[in-house]
Design a protein that fits this description.
Distance between the termini: 81 Å
Shape: elongated
Structural class: mainly alpha
Amino acid sequence: MKIERTGSARPSSPVKSAGKASKSSGEQFSEALDQAAGSVAGVSGAAPTQPVDALLSIQEVDDAIDGGKRQGQRWGESILDKLEMLRIGLIGGVIPSGDLETITKMVEEGRGEVTDPGLNEILDEIELRARVELAKLRR
């Protein structure tokens, strides 16, 4: 879209100067300020600021904790992916022994980092089942 030349931005009528304000208007303004000041409560003192270093150190601790959680989450997701591949193999009638061995190794390697007793029981069951299936394939 092309913009053609427009008129000036100046107002069409000249601005008139009001001249000096009358003394009475100044007095009215001053009185209004005095009345308003009487109705407003005083300002309380500012609260002391918290040290920023403490907040930053808390954030660093959270990041370190989250890093361990993320690593554990990735480990758990990789085991679940392998178990899903194993489930698909069971449905298809073909169980790849390499997947069973990988699952067993992954459970053994990650076992030391798990402190939850319920999760340890589940890992025991997964490892036992994988070893049983490996024994069936090898015989």
